[in-house]
Design a protein that fits this description.
Layout (H helix, E strand, L loop, with lengths): L2 H18 L9 E4 L12 E5 L4 E5 L8 H18 L12 H13 L4 E2 L5 E2 L14
Parallel strand pairs: 1-3
Antiparallel strand pairs: 2-3, 4-5
Helix pairs in contact: 1-2, 2-3
């Protein structure tokens, strides 16, 4: 996948999230390929940065080498973090832990379960749910 293709996918997923949760239209996150200590991990592909007034998705260039299912699941998970941090009104009963909550928000928006594959990375096609505890909740 190219950076342009990934950008198009991210914009598409963002627009879908805004359709499902109209209050999200007041948020305008940015994204870029950058560096992060998190990216040193084999499973570190993206981070959501929030400073109290803006959101930024920091993406690892190694994300471009992944299959579409993994890329899409990671982007959905990160959008879940933005929805959560933006305090968009959501139905009750979502998990209280940060990472599982992001997955549940993504599942609420797109109607597909975020799975964790054999590499313990988000996927839409194979793996287990919910997020394994040893990854951090």
């Amino acid at each position: 996948m190219t950076e342009v293709d990934l950008g198009h996918l991210l914009v598409t997923r963002w627009n879908e999230a805004c359709e499902k949760l109209p209050d999200l239209n007041q948020v305008s996150p940015t994204y870029a390929f950058g560096t992060s200590k998190h990216f040193e991990s084999d499973r570190g592909f993206a981070t959501t940065i929030f400073n109290g007034s803006w959101f930024h998705l920091n993406l690892s260039s190694k994300l471009l080498q992944q299959d579409l299912s993994r890329i899409d699941a990671i982007l959905r998970h990160e959008i879940g973090h933005i929805v959560d941090l933006a305090q968009i009104e959501l139905p009750p009963g979502l998990p209280g832990t940060l990472e599982r909550r992001a997955d549940s928000i993504a599942e609420l928006i797109w109607g597909e379960t975020i799975l964790y594959d054999t590499d313990h990375v988000q996927s839409l096609v194979s793996g287990i749910s919910p997020r394994p505890e040893f990854l951090g909740l």
